[in-house]
C-alpha cells in the first residue's frame, strides 16, 4: 500500500472517530441553549469561520475560476446535506445515543455508497459485486447488534 493511501485511511478513521464527539458536543450545546437547530447553526458558523481562516492563511482564492452562476444548481446540495446531517445528529444523539446514531449513519452511507458506486453517479462505476454486498450485509448485522432494536428503550 502506498504511503498516501495509508495516510488517507488513517485520516478517514480519525475523522470517523471525531464524528460521535461532534454529535455529542452539539447535542450538549443544544441542551444548554436553544435546542438542536441553534446548536447546528453554531456548529456550521464555527466551521465556516475556521475554513475561512484556513483560506486566508493558505492564500486560496476565495472566488472560483468558474463564475458561481455558471455552476449547475445541484452542486449546492452538498452543503444542504451537511446541514441536515449535523442537525439530525444533534437532535438524535440524546434519543439514540452516539453509538447507535453513528452506526445507523454508517449503515446508510455503506448502502447508499454501494448504489452510487454501482451506477457511477458523479464518478467511475464500481460494480456492487458479491464481496461488497456481503460487506454491506455485515455492516447491517453490526448496526443491529449496536442499536438492538428488539430491546425496549
From TrEMBL:
GO terms for cellular component: plasma membrane. The keyword Transmembrane applies. It comes from the Bacteria. Keywords: Membrane, Transmembrane, Transmembrane helix. It holds the Pfam family DMT_YdcZ. The chain crosses the membrane at residues 37-58, 70-92, 98-119, 131-150. The keyword Metal-binding does not apply. This is DMT family transporter.
Amino acid at each position: 500500500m502506498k504511503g498516501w493511501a495509508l495516510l488517507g485511511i488513517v485520516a478517514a478513521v480519525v475523522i470517523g472517530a471525531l464524528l460521535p464527539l461532534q454529535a455529542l458536543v452539539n447535542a450538549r450545546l443544544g441542551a444548554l441553549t436553544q435546542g438542536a437547530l441553534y446548536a447546528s447553526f453554531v456548529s456550521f458558523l464555527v466551521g465556516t469561520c475556521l475554513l475561512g481562516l484556513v483560506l486566508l492563511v493558505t492564500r486560496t482564492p476565495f472566488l472560483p475560476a468558474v463564475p458561481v452562476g455558471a455552476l449547475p444548481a445541484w452542486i449546492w446540495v452538498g452543503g444542504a446535506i451537511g446541514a441536515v446531517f449535523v442537525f439530525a445528529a444533534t437532535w438524535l444523539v440524546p434519543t439514540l445515543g452516539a453509538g447507535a446514531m453513528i452506526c445507523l449513519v454508517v449503515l446508510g452511507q455503506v448502502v447508499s455508497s454501494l448504489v452510487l458506486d454501482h451506477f457511477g453517479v458523479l464518478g467511475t462505476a464500481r460494480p456492487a459485486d458479491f464481496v461488497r454486498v456481503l460487506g454491506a450485509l455485515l455492516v447491517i448485522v453490526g448496526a443491529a447488534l449496536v442499536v438492538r432494536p428488539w430491546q425496549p428503550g
